[in-house]
Design goal:
This protein is mainly α. 89% of the residues lie in helices and 0% in strands. The protein has helices at 3-29, 33-56. Helix 1 (3-29) runs antiparallel to helix 2 (33-56). It is elongated, with a radius of gyration of 14 Å.
Length: 57
């Protein structure tokens, strides 16, 4: 794998982890249970994606 490809992977993982951290912060600020549940599902899917991606490496 080239160094450029590794940079793309690092960039992708950084974006996913950044997105995940903002999902958690947003979820903590909400009062609507429906929205919290939806963001929790999205958070789990995002975390699963990150885990699968690390598993491929």
């Amino acid at each position: 794998m080239s160094s450029k490809e590794l940079l793309y992977i690092e960039d992708f993982l950084s974006h996913e982890e950044y997105f995940l951290s903002h999902l958690c912060e947003t979820k903590e600020c909400l009062d609507d249970e429906k929205m919290i549940k939806m963001l929790s599902k999205l958070e789990k899917k995002n975390q699963d994606l990150i885990t699968k991606f690390y598993g491929l490496l």
